[in-house]
């Protein structure tokens, strides 16, 4: 059973990954979440020169609600992690109200507008499992996404390093759900 769950996890992992190569961007939007590796990866991208500005977004979400220390937000925690890795505080904007991916996009765009920033290129950085979801949400929620800015999605790159428990749980739930659905479709005498 474990082997089947891991195979399902790998399929889901591959489906949600966009595997993009970084391009220079006007702003890097880092989506807060429950995995500090996102902040470390974003700091590495910043320090490599992929973007001059970082906007970190997130209050709390399903993975962090009620779990963050001292009433801090995902964005504040990620900011501390990125500063500790060498990202200057002066290069970071914080959006601390978003509680889901749609709000991450809408509130980030509003914050950039309040600072008179209209990026032509945006890099989204989130945990790997969220790449596809964040990219699709960006297209839907970012006003003018059809025309500009261009964007790319970056997640921590290695399945071998990061076989997320959430993927395993999702694969297990999907497998169990499929089995339950199949059982419901079976005639009573087969069950």
TrEMBL record:
InterPro entries: Cell_Envelope_Assoc (IPR051599), DUF218 (IPR003848), Rossmann-like_a/b/a_fold (IPR014729). GO terms for cellular component: plasma membrane. It comes from the Eukaryota. Residues 26-161 form the DUF218 domain. This is DUF218 domain. It comes from Elysia marginata. The lineage of its organism: Eukaryota, Metazoa, Spiralia, Lophotrochozoa, Mollusca.
């Amino acid at each position: 059973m474990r082997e089947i769950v891991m195979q399902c996890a790998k399929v889901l992992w591959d489906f949600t990954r966009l595997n993009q190569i970084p391009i220079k961007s006007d702003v890097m939007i880092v989506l807060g979440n429950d995995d500090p590796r996102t902040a470390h990866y974003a700091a590495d991208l910043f320090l490599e020169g992929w973007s001059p500005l970082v906007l970190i977004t997130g209050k709390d979400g399903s993975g962090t609600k009620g779990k963050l220390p001292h009433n801090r937000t995902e964005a504040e925690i990620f900011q501390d992690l990125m500063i500790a890795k060498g990202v200057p505080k002066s290069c970071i904007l914080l959006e601390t109200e978003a509680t889901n991916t749609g709000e991450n996009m809408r509130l980030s765009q509003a914050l950039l507008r309040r600072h008179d920033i209209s990026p032509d290129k945006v890099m989204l950085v989130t945990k790997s499992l969220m790449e596809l979801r964040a990219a699709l949400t960006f297209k839907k929620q970012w006003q003018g996404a059809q025309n500009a800015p261009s964007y790319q999605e970056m997640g921590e790159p290695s399945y071998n390093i990061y076989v997320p428990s959430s993927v395993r749980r999702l694969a297990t739930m999907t497998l169990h759900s499929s089995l339950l659905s199949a059982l419901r479709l079976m005639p009573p005498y087969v069950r």
